[in-house]
Write a structure and sequence with these properties.
Layout (H helix, E strand, L loop, with lengths): L1 H8 L1 E4 L5 H21 L1 H5 L4 E3 L9 H11 L2 H10 L4 E10 L21 H10 L2 E7 L3 E6 L10 H7 L15 E5 L4 E5 L4 E3 L6 E9 L2 H4 L10 H4 L12
Antiparallel strand pairs: 1-7, 2-3, 3-9, 4-7, 4-9, 5-6, 5-8
Helix pairs in contact: 2-4
């Protein structure tokens, strides 16, 4: 059922997916990371940043905390979903934290993650039919969530949607879209959605969400995987290594 739902719509919303005990230690580590990140990136935050990334690089957390995040990423419930929705092997790509902008008037924006890769429009159209990049979004508090356009993980934009994403013909990326569907999220939920689909984060309620990103284990994605975000050989010895780049 999961595969069919995801294959058709490009997302699955699991309510009350995580037990509270699974969230508390991860939340503590992420709050520590976020506090340190804000201290170093204060200017970028004030200039509009709404996310950070590479939590597992170890820049702002210690080795034990990094290993705890890797254990969270490799829990059985997550692996079961990956096995259900990926056509072949999936590999861990990166992590992100999403938070509200410094300026409360800052507008959110419709996008496909693939539009930032440098690919031409024609190549993007081809890639979304054959490549898989998937976000596992984990909110740590009730939030407005994400608005997405179901089915666009495999299908290209309608004219108005493309004009909105790319600011054409007077449209702006924050304008409403007729096919948009809002997915509100609560603590303990999990939203699995394709990075290739048209979507936008909804700001407000001091959101604090953790994204784990997976992609196809193919040569096309190797250049986007930073080895410093992957486990060391020593860490792999105590992890389920099948989801990581350094899996021998």
């Amino acid at each position: 059922m999961q595969h069919n739902d995801y294959n058709e719509s490009g997302y699955i919303h699991f309510e009350n997916f995580f037990a509270e005990t699974k969230l508390q230690e991860t939340e503590r580590i992420l709050k520590k990371f976020h506090k340190s990140w804000l201290a170093v990136n204060a200017e970028g935050y004030k200039n509009g940043s709404i996310n950070s990334h590479s939590i597992t690089s170890g820049e702002f957390i210690n080795e034990q905390e990094r290993l705890a995040i890797f254990r969270f990423i490799t829990q059985e419930k997550i692996k079961n979903i990956l096995n259900s929705i990926f056509p072949a092997k999936a590999v861990f790509l990166n992590t992100q934290l999403f938070f509200d902008p410094f300026n409360p008037l800052q507008q959110n924006y419709w996008h496909r993650d693939i539009q930032y890769t440098g690919l031409s429009i024609d190549d993007q159209k081809e890639a979304i039919r054959n490549q898989n990049v998937v976000h596992f979004r984990i909110p740590f508090k009730p939030e407005l969530g994400i608005e997405l356009v179901p089915g666009t993980h495999k299908n290209w934009d309608l004219p108005e949607e493309l004009e909105t994403r790319l600011s054409l013909n007077g449209r702006k990326p924050g304008d409403s879209l007729e096919r948009g569907k809002v997915i509100s999220l609560d603590r303990g939920d999990l939203l699995v959605f394709s990075a290739n689909m048209i979507h936008r984060g909804l700001y407000g309620r001091n959101r604090f969400s953790f994204d784990i990103i997976f992609c196809d284990d193919t040569p096309d994605f190797k250049e986007f995987i930073d080895p410093k975000n992957q486990p060391t050989p020593q860490e792999l010895d105590v992890l389920d290594r099948q989801l990581f780049l350094n899996n021998p």
